[in-house]
Amino acid sequence: MRTSTSHPILAMTSASAALVLALSGCSAEGTEATPEPAADSSTHPVEHARGTTEVPNDPQSVVVLEPVELDTAVALGVTPVGAAVASNVAGIPEYLGVEGVEPVGTVPEPDLEAIAALEPDLILGTDSRHSKFYDQLESIAPTVFMETQADPWQENMLLIGEALNQQEESQQLVDGFNERCEEIRDEYDVDGKTANLIRPRDETTLSLYGPTSFAGGALECVGLSIPEQDWEDGLQADISPENVREAEADYVFVTTDDVADESTVPAAISENISQFPSLTLVDTSYWVSGVGPLGGEEVLDDIEEFLEAQQ
Amino acid sequence: MRTVLPKPETSIRARHQRLLPGLLILIALLLFSTLLSLAVGSNGLPLNVVFDALRGDGEAEAQYVVGDLRLPRTVTGLVVGAALGVAGALMQAFTRNPLADPGILGVNAGAAFAVACGVAFLGLQGVTSFVWLAFLGAFTVTVAVYLIGSSGRGAADPIRLTLAGVALGAVFSGMTTGLTLSNPDAFDHMRSWNAGSLLGRGYEVLLPMLPFIGLGIVLAFFVAPGLNALALGNDIARSQGANIAVIRIVVILAVTLLAGTSTALAGPISFIGLMVPHVARWIFGLDQRVILGVSILLAPIIVLLADVLGRVLIAPAEIPVGIVTAFIGAPVLILLARRRKASTLS
């Protein structure tokens, strides 16, 4: 490239950079009247899927690209400035009860410009989904990647806790979840009872969730057992409506966007309703997408309420 | 303009001699694939259980699998296959392009866009609520393609229609992609429709579509002699008394009815409309009446066999039929292109 052609661009860039500096200078002066406690500028190393990264001990603006990272961060008292969402229409999940989180694209396709515009000081993502963005994200802010969303969610939670410098707190959240499971197991008669969680995908596919999945794990955690299937990584098994009887269990939960609307039960199940004596609609937004301690509490609430009604 | 050389007498006679046994074989194959589609699925029911269920006896599970799932999807496969085969034959004869398929007029793109809008803005879920919307979208876009292709001087000629169809199709596909990318939930709900599937289309959506498909097939056979004349070039066709403007309008109407309805019912099932008329021409020659008749039998056979394959390949789950036809269709297309004497149109 000839340098002469790039000069005007360089000049413009530096001019706009100067402008940005001047503006940020202004805003800094503006907030000087009410000084916030100075941010801790020290860092700690975090070992993660893409190596070891120095991340701030007290991150002020965090961007998260994965539901479990959003849920865990909120649970740890760190409300991210931006989060990749499952759907641009639905936005930030309601069950989290937070406001002011900027949606930055979708989980599979995060919007790098929107992320850069938020000027984060820490980015959390997932190597299995966002691998190709790592270098660009790293140039925006220190970036920590968990390996894959298919790993047990509580292990991912601990990594997120480490990245947010709240290792103990995240361990407490994990322990709290497991303790609550045990309380439910002791309180209700779940011995020998089987349960299935079904997510209707489309006309040809029903997905059954396995013991290592998030909500499937919650069902097993309270002492229910999920009948054996040909699981993919223990997470999920797809069946055709022809094989709907493989989804039979003592308690069957079906995910839906609207738990009050019984027409959302897939035809394969409603047409064989005599095979499904105990059928409960549950909310997809946290049973499937609410991976994390807050979504986990919601799922346990639902399970407890259901078991209470069985007494 | 290509010079039309008379075919050697023997070749034509040979092809005529093939016609009757050929049709009988096709009918037998159609019966066989229909039975296969009722008997084979991702649930490995034994044959005697299937036949009991067809008679209305036997256990509830078999009655559900055979009566409520396999029977309607087989009927859907027969109807959709016949419509796609005829629509493809019409398109190839009309555009005189051996690579034309029903989607070239923007039918699929229009239907998909309408479905995407319905999912994203009206919150529609489930195939039965898509059908009329998809039909409306397919029809609207084809009319738009026709208006754009026929504006300016003269009547709508196939090349301008094709260009308008491809252009509008690209625009609508782009908008559909935009909608679904910004809303993966909508994408999820659209996925099965988009892949092309015969499952879950009950009689309540299938039956109202039958008159449209019936009308489309009648129109196709009505216009077939005219298409034979058109194959000789516009001037000769005119001198033989064919009304080219009428032929064009009837063809477009028939293709819209057939492709629009089948796409609305089953989603975009690729390659059937492209592949089947080729095979028909290859074996039985260039008479449009014969090509239409063969396509109407051959296309449902391939759709049903592809659907059965999709049910057993990854049992206990299924692969939608549209994905299977794409997998079968691509190598068949390469084979056709590599044949020394491609099944040309004249």
Question: Can you describe this structure?
Answer:
The complex is a heterodimer of chains A (311) and B (346). With 311 residues, chain A is an alpha/beta fold. Chain A contains eleven helices and twelve strands. In chain A, the strands form three sheets. Chain A has a five-stranded parallel β-sheet. In chain A, strands 10-9-8-11-12 form a five-stranded mixed β-sheet. Chain A has a two-stranded antiparallel ribbon with strand order 1-2. Chain A starts with a helix and ends with a helix. With 346 residues, chain B is mainly α. Chain B has one domain: ABC transporter involved in vitamin B12 uptake, BtuC. Chain B is 76% helix and 0% strand. Chain B is built from 14 helices and no strands. Chain B is globular and about 65 Å long. In chain B, 51% of the residues are buried. Classes of the chains: A alpha/beta (311), B mainly alpha (346). At the A-B interface, strand 10 of A face helix 3 and helix 7 of B.
| Average pLDDT, all residues of chain A | 85
Radius of gyration of chain B: 21 Å
Query: Separation of termini of chain B?
Result: 12 Å
Query: How many β strands of chain B by DSSP?
Result: 0
User: Helix amount of chain A, in percent?
Assistant: 25-40%
> What is the averaged pLDDT score of chain B?
84
| Overall helicity of chain B | over 70%
Strand content of the residues of chain A, in percent? 15-25%
CATH architecture of chain B, by name, is Orthogonal Bundle
